[in-house]
Amino acid sequence: MSSLRVRFAPSPTGNLHIGNLRTALFNDLLARHEGGKLVLRIEDTDPERSKPEFAKAIIKDLKLMNIGVDEGPFYQSERLETYEEYLEKLESQGQVYRCYCTQEELKARRHEALGQKRPPRYDNRCRRLSKEEQEKRKTQGIRPTMRFKVECKDAIQVEDLIRGPISFPVDEIGDFVIMRSHPTLEHKWLPTFHMSVCVDDGLMNITHVIRGEDHLSNSPRHALLFRALGFAVPKFAHLSLIHGPGGEPLSKRYGALSVSDFLEERGYLPEALRNYLALLGWSPKDNREIFTSDELVKAFEIRNALRHPAIFSEDKLQWINGEHLKQMPEKNYLDGAFKFLMKSGIPIKDRISMERVLIQLKNDIHKFDEFPSLFSFLCDETKHKRKLEKAFKENNELSNALKAGAVVSKSAESIVSHLTTSGDAFYQEFTKALAQSVTEKGKKLYIPIRAALTAETHGMELKRIFQLLEPARIRTRFEIANELISQK
Ligand code: GLU
């Protein structure tokens, strides 16, 4: 058992999206690869933006994705006293001070600094605020923040497992806020993200901090704070950002999509999504692309994470999902497929025939959400009739095919009403008899048949449609189509 300890620390201000899920996955993979532990910590100290329902949804999504949480969830909102204790420690060490600058003042100074091309860092002015000035500001109703004194002279070195050693010039880092006055309770403090992260990583003995590159610039502050709090600085690994297919930030197109959207709405397999996300920002150094979860754990090395931005491609995800479907044991595949079909409201009358067709499709489909449209023709005949009438009015390709193929569907109706077989023999005898009674061939023959049976011009192979619709229903559907054609 290794002593490696990592954590996933989401803020519950929205659903778990792809970027955060990838961070969770990389933590999980490293913990499993090294035989370490993964801690789940909910960073909910922002009372305005954090919502318990988001925390619940994140925990559910992590379960769906088989992210193995060993400890937690721990809620930072339940640990406010701990942060205050550590604030006292820093105060007694003389490493913090009260700052009475207002948001407006800070904003104006930032603006001015940027205008003069200076780094917009805080100028540490409240370090020197006299007691009288402090009192004056207090009586004006200004509530202070607590700032941490950045006192080191040299550049701050941070070791990143992906990027190597990074040096941050200290003159760009002003004293930073680690606690804010509680919005409602006087004499109480709320930690900023910097404080709660460092106190908790320290107390939870976190050895490796894996998070998004957007936090890279926080790491020198955190390194200083860890030391001041009396904790060892963990190793960092900042994952490159994920961009959309056109290089735009991912949030534009996919940012709002939660894990449940991918798994439950779009029908991706958790295993395939894990596989895809692992490759989104990490490379196994051989050309392998399809991994089971166990294979990923074995191959995963954090130092092989990529430094350049990763591009999210749903096409690639679909392909990987298709490969996982091919490899899936038949029983699991069928269970998943039926679950998805039932949720979509597709009526399943003949489960045996359905299983047969689903197995035939196993190597062709990419994800379960292709099923509802493929099987939508299984609706009852009343609904089918409405669908066909509508398509006949609105879909030129379909109405032209049916009109031009009037002879075909007339003959089809008459053939099916005479056939006495069922199952595969029924389809064989039907196609044979049809070929003998009409001269149409290829598309001219099959599109009118498909249109009459499914109210669509594209879709599942005819042979499979015949496997799923009993002869009596096939006959009714030809009757409906012929009636419609003869009305016009
Ligand atoms: N709560 C932070 C976030 O959701 C993560 C903090 C960290 O990983 O250090 O961005």
Question: How would you describe this structure to a colleague?
Answer:
With 488 residues, this protein is of the alpha/beta class. It is 51% helix and 11% strand. It has 22 helices and 13 strands. It has a four-stranded antiparallel β-sheet. A three-stranded parallel β-sheet has the order 1-2-3. Helix 20 (442-454) crosses helix 22. The chain is elongated, with a radius of gyration of 32 Å. The chain binds glutamic acid (GLU). Glutamic acid (GLU) binds at residues 9-11, 43, 197, 211, 215. Glutamic acid is lined by residues 9-11, 43, 197, 211, 215.
Outline of the structure:
The protein is an alpha/beta fold and 488 residues long. 51% of the residues lie in helices and 11% in strands. β8 (176-181) and β9 (189-191) form a beta hairpin.
